[in-house]
Amino acid sequence: DRFLAYRRDVLAQKVDDLFQRTLVKVWNTYAGQHSVWPPQALVAAPLKQKTAVLWEAFPASLRQEIEDWLASLQKVRRVPGGSRRKAVKSNTIVTRRRELQAYARRAVEAGVPVAELTSLSVLLDPDLLERVIKIMGGDAKPSTSIIDLSSRLYAMARDTGALDEAKLADLLEMRDCLQENRPPPMTEKNLVLIRRVISPGGWKQMRLLPEKLMAKARKQKAHSPERSALQAQSALAIAILLFAPVRVSNLASIRIGKHLIRPNGKGSDYMLVFKHTEVKNVIDLEFAIDSELTEFIDAYIREFRPALVKDPQSDHLFPGDSGARKAPGLSSVICRTVERELGFPITAHQFRHAAASIILTKQPGNYELVRQILGHKSTVATRKFYIALDGIGATKAYAQMVRDDIADSPTPLKEAHR
Fold first, then answer.
1. DSSP 128-167
2. Which of 209, 220, 226, 359 is the most interior residue, by most CB within 10 Å?
3. Residue 385 belongs to what H/E stretch?
4. Alpha-carbon distances, residue 401 vs 363, 398, 405, 407, 413 (angstroms)
5. Is the peptide bond before 306 cis (omega within 30 degrees of 0)?
6. Backbone angles phi, psi at 227, to 5 degrees
7. How far apart are CA 286 and CA 269, in angstroms?
8. How far is Cα 411 from Cα 402, in angstroms, rounded to an integer?
9. Would you write out the chain's pLDDT as a tens digit for each of its 418 residues?
10. How many whole angstroms separate alpha carbon 182 and alpha carbon 417?
11. CB-CB contact of 354 with 360 (8 Å)
């Protein structure tokens, strides 16, 4: 309580029930699990219960129009303007229905009687959207959810013809104004890191770091076996992320024989595989491990992993204190290790951004390769998120073209200056 008061009154930072619940969740993760951590579990602030208007209480005419529109999304269709749209997946239909129901309830909070929400023309009215945005806190700086809401409502109004031309134009103007507040997919913090990592010196340092850490681990193994094993663990985690930039949840969960396999038998190179049920995007992931990384993994398993395993039956590549996988905390260990050795922090997830930047620097426009390496479902999301990185590779490629032309020129540039 004193910490929360200090955060609120001295640091002038936001303190609410959500922050308290997050803090309690992290605290309780370690309570009773570590010798130096207090065993007392904390109690989270109760969730605020809202008395929501039942969906069945809204006019049947509105509910039917929404269901008709959702049904139309499940078919291949043409929208105003002539473009052809493919059928929407069933889980997306469920999400859209929930979004519209939530928006209708917000309209009631904004002061519109339930009985007056009789049709899409009423629900999608620009004046109503403006009132809903105000109660959602969008007056100052609209959130991404508000920006997305305006886009979806405009698309719905355009496709259904629920609004006349004047109101549709007003809704379009609101959408465009809100879109100007959309934060860039790649934050400035990530861009600064990526520029540093992909510089020739930065990337070389990163590539050599696992071997450097492993050499340090071997030097201190005799007098500090567990500490050296943790050093080797960090080295291997970084080495895997360089060649297989998986999400940290998958990295921490790697099990020998299940995810780390030798498809061609004993002595062959490893493969790293995850079933779609284990991956956030529900996509099978497979990474071929070359012979050098295979030897690196074997050295870690043979020389260092035994000092970390508390349970002899454990098959986790990165075992934690309790004998299960090392989680949470693996990303923090990686971040601190890189900062200590190279002078700048990089989280496990930022290795994914670095991988995308390396690919697009060497092969501008190759979003399909980025998609496959990162395990995205489509190149649309990949292109949207990493478009800012593509310019770096494009400018380098163009600069090389210019240099090649200068080299082929009968009068090189430096001779012209003379």
1. HHHHHHHHTT-SSS--HHHHHHHHHHHHHHHHHT-S-HHH
2. 359
3. helix 379-408
4. 14, 5, 6, 10, 14
5. no
6. -65, -40
7. 13
8. 14
9. 888 888 887 777 778 888 888 888 888 888 877 778 888 888 888 776 556 789 999 999 999 999 999 999 888 877 666 667 778 888 889 889 999 999 999 999 999 999 999 999 999 999 999 999 988 875 667 888 889 999 999 999 998 999 999 999 999 999 998 888 877 777 778 888 888 877 878 888 999 999 999 999 999 999 999 999 999 999 999 999 999 999 998 999 999 999 999 999 999 999 999 998 888 888 899 999 999 999 999 999 999 999 998 888 889 999 876 656 665 678 889 999 999 999 888 889 999 998 998 898 888 889 999 999 999 888 888 888 888 777 777 777 778 788 787 777 665 545 555 5
10. 47
11. no
Burial class (CB in 10 A: 0-12, 13-18, 19+), 81: exposed
Which of these, 347, 22, 376, lies nearest to 189 by C-alpha position?
347
Q: What is the DSSP letter of 169?
A: H
Burial of residue 398 (number of CB atoms within 10 Å: 0-12, 13-18, 19+) = exposed
CA 165 to chain centre: 38
Strands 260-261 and 271-274: antiparallel
Buried b (16+ CB within 10 A) or exposed e, 41-52: eeeeeeeeeeee
